[in-house]
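Hi all, a correction to my earlier message: I attached the wrong file for DUF397 domain-containing protein. Here's the right sequence:
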Amino acid sequence: MTKKYAQWRKSRHSDPGESCVEVGRSADGMIGVRDTKAQGAGPILALTRDEWAALLHCLRSPLGN
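and the right structure:
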């Protein structure tokens, strides 16, 4: 079954042109990440809240940490 994600929002760090990432949330709290170029028809990376937090931590950390 495909999860339904709502309230998609574009990252503040996305390129104003075509290179954009959107994040949405499903009813059960999963976090979905998708590429806006696919206009909603492409794959969605589904993450738990803990996985999302770990991803953000890695992205925000200086290289090598």
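Sorry for the mix-up. The helical segments are 49-60.
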